[in-house]
Amino acid sequence: MNDGTAAIASEKLAVGGEARLRIGAWRRFAIAALIVLAAALPFGLSNYQVFELTQVMIYAIAVLGLNILTGYNGQISLGHGGFFAAGGYTAAVLMHRYGVPYWATLPPAALVGFALGLLFGLPALRFEGPYLALVTLAMAVATPQTLKYFSWTGGQQGLNLAKPAPPPGLGIDRDRWLYLFVLVILLVAIRVAANLLNGRTGRAWMAIRDHPIAAAAMGVDTPRYKTLAFGTSTLFTAVAGALAAIVVGFVAPESFSLFLSISFLVGSAVGGIATIGGAIVGGFFIEFVPNFANDISDAAPWAIYGLAMLLFMYAMPRGVVGSLGPLAAWLRGRLRPAVAAGEISAASNNASSPQQTSQGRLE
Amino acid sequence: MHLFLQQVFSGLASGAIYASLALALVMIYRATDLVNFAQGEMAMFSTYIAWMLVNAAVPFWAAFALTLIVSFIGGMVIERVVVRPVENAPVLAAVVVTIGLLLIFNALAGWLFTYTLQEFPSPFPDRPLFGALMTTRDLGVIAVTLIMLALLFAFFRFTATGLAMRAAAQNPASARLCGIRVGRMLAIGWGLAAAIGATAGIMVAPILFLDPEMMSGVLLYAFTGALLGGITSPVGAVIGGLIVGVTENLVGTYLIASQLKLTVALILIVIVLAFRPNGLFGTAIVRRV
Q1: End of a domain among A216, A239, A265?
Q2: Do A300 and B107 touch (CB under 8 A)?
Q3: Residue B232 near chain A (CB below 8 Å)
């Protein structure tokens, strides 16, 4: 009997795998279509709309960084605005003082973000929950004040940057070029994040999030992976900061207030903290909901923004993607009766034969 | 030495205000594992209510008492209406709800009362005491805080409701089995926290002047104080708040200009926390494996 059930299980797995492969092909097609759509989108929109969508993608990269830390590793941060600023200022100073081309500022910004994150992640090992929130909050509060203090950061006025020109011969204007540039970085970021999270590192992060003691008992080097999560997270956010500096063409201490850090956290929660797609939803929320709120009420737009946060959290406490994801998976199961039925009949067909043989053997 | 003592006393006065708000934060944290980011803005809103009453020629202490009652009821209503829906949601969802609440109160106050600075009367005359070591105003603020603390202590120690609230915070499931209405206790907790916050707001308004942004800095100091003392310890919150107040004042006087005061104070406290990760009086977070 045991042989029989084992055989059924393995058959089911094989058939299920095939079905999954088919779904995988569909999924790949859908993703490719989405990417093409995203790349074509700016050519049908006004300059300002293109700029707004570019901002959405930048915020999405920053929120993705925060999701890695908070959603997948369980460490909260109220200071990611500070790392965003670090990336932004790295790019700005390199461009402004050393004439480095804009695209070449991304690797140094990433490096600075990673290094700062590791440095910050080490003391963060000692803190949990609200204490970590305070320590990162201190960082968010300190950032604008510290930036004002130095002359090479442009002090209170900040730094003005020349907006980068699109490569000649491509025939597109600056805003659309920057949109595509940011889109490519976003896609790379998503790919890197997905690979990390689906692999050994991501499993270690999630194990630590779900049960640090059990993870340590299983041989996960907890301090190392927690620090690594911090560094990876801030790397993403710093790159987003650098992109923001390039796209906006301006950095100033006041753009990196505590409110920015809180916006990232809100975007992360609204999208779904332990999701990748949620980062994009979060980017949209951060960029557009304040504008919508402004349209609804001139008098108290931030009250509408706050109300939107409340409503989103009531309707989808796990975030948009976190709450709708399981629903979509369930729907997919329902909408594919063919695949599902095939799976069941194949499984039952195969199920009958080994059972017979085992019965035969018993006789 | 005189300057030093002067700064310590004036630090204790602002520390008493931070301590009150820190206590409000700790109360809600203990009951629900939630840091209420809206605590400061709730206090600011309460202070505007007091301001309206005082402007309507209500005597100061009557306005004070009325504001506390209104804030208490308001806090209970907020718990029932706004916070309850995310009671069983992930903590971050609840945190975002309190951030949303912060924005709503801030914007509402700006809309109803405008963003201009308003003068708020102090109930205490501003006279030097003990050879100019402190002022009567500082003494008054400290006295009000101490009286409030004593009342709270008595409430939690000697009344049935206080005991029930402690039980509900410590172990909601067992408390419910004993017949305690945990939901109601939570609402009372929010009401009390709102009233404590209102006291802090009314005490700080004569010094900082009243405007919708008044409490944002205070909340940060209070949060720092609460964590320094240990977020699970009410006594720790009070002591932590006082330490933060004194540290802030001394840093501002001796170390650095007021612009970077907040940053330096925060860094000092982070360093302290690095050696005592659960605060000075907090208990380590223990989890069942």
Answers
A1: A265
A2: yes
A3: no
